[in-house]
Amino acid sequence: MKKLLLATLALAGTGPALAYTLVGQGYTEPVFLTAPSGDASRLFIVEKGGVIKMQSGGKVTPWLDISAQVNTDSERGLLGLAFDPNYATNGRFYVDYIDKTTLATVVASYTATSQGVDKASARTILTVPQTGGFSNHKAGWIGFSPKDPGQLYIATGDGGSVNDPNNNAQNLSSNLGKLLRITPGTDGGYTVPADNPFVGAAGNDEIWAYGLRNPYRNSFDRTTGDLWIGDVGQGQREEIDFASAASGLGRGANYGWRLREGTIATPGVGGARPPGAVDPIYDYGHTVGQSVIGGYVYRGGADANLEGKYVFGDYVSGSIWALSGGSVTALDSPLNNTSGLSSFGEGGTGALYAIDIHGNIYLLAAAVPEPAPAALLAVGLMAYSLIRRRRA
Ligand SMILES: [Ca+2]
């Protein structure tokens, strides 16, 4: 009976079992999910077209609609959402999108009340011109580190096309291909933290780290504050970059693009690793996947085997992996062999979710409801009898 049970649980994919539960569906091109810190009852789902929806108790409510001001061509869209660490008291949150008119990346703040979001509360925090006119590599993740409160981190892509034709990522006078770090103003605008690496030196003051191609999905470990970057590769290598909080979060780090693609010289434009450049903590080739989706260090508490491991995946292969101690384990994935894993997301108390661009949200690791052994046995018996009936 035990064998039968395991077979039933492993039906959906390969690798060690990873419990997953469909908890949301019907979203239109969802690309991100988050919640205010500590909020265990609500999820905020970002739709690429410019809408944020709130899901609570199985009910979905439109929360903010800025679709009229968002360009959604190719990789453009509403791409990022971050709640202010003091959201519970100030109601402030931040979005990252491509402006319909200027095609620039815009980071804006809004303020929510118990009545919802007042669109008139919109304040532009920062704008990054998308010179070059290409429609891909917009990154768009934004977030706060629990170990660096008050500073907003903003991931930008290299601006698009092939081989970073304008050499933005290595250019410290461009805010493209970077991780930026700013102190957002309470009424729009921003200041630059005095300890940013290029303050008082050549290079844009907003830049925290550089040499990134399309750092589309990233995270800070909610426990340690460590930084994890998922940098989407070009034709060869997909890349995970890491900087611990204890070592200063990679202040001034050069992650190598366009000279380096993962651990190799970029074919055509690459070369030796630039002096001081940081190699990825992990990279993989295109037989395994073709668009890395950066994830989270699992802190959800529902799976002891996963706890403390970095969970990430690939948009094209649908694979989900756990990275720990330099080695990767393939996990069961609800999206195995189906293109569409658009992001992971963390709930307000650390529950981990996977998002399918086709509209589905899966809770990972925690089976809901947690099935009692007797219930699992019943499921196994049902599956067994169904298989027998099909065979008959
Ligand atoms: Ca400077």
Features:
36% strand, 3 helices, 392 residues, binds calcium ion, disordered C terminus, 5-stranded antiparallel sheet, disordered N terminus, Neuraminidase, mainly beta
Describe the structure.
It holds the Pfam family GSDH. This is PQQ-dependent sugar dehydrogenase. InterPro entries: 6-blade_b-propeller_TolB-like (IPR011042), Glc/Sorbosone_DH (IPR012938), Ice-binding_C (IPR013424), Quinoprot_gluc/sorb_DH_b-prop (IPR011041). It comes from Pelomonas cellulosilytica. It is a single chain. The chain has 392 residues and is mostly beta strands. The protein has one domain: Neuraminidase. 8% of the residues lie in helices and 36% in strands. The chain has three helices and 28 strands. Strands 6, 7, 8, 9 and 10 form a five-stranded antiparallel β-sheet that branches. Strands 11, 12, 13, 14 and 15 form a five-stranded antiparallel β-sheet that branches. The radius of gyration is 21 Å and the shape is globular. The two termini are 21 Å apart. Calcium ion binds next to loops.
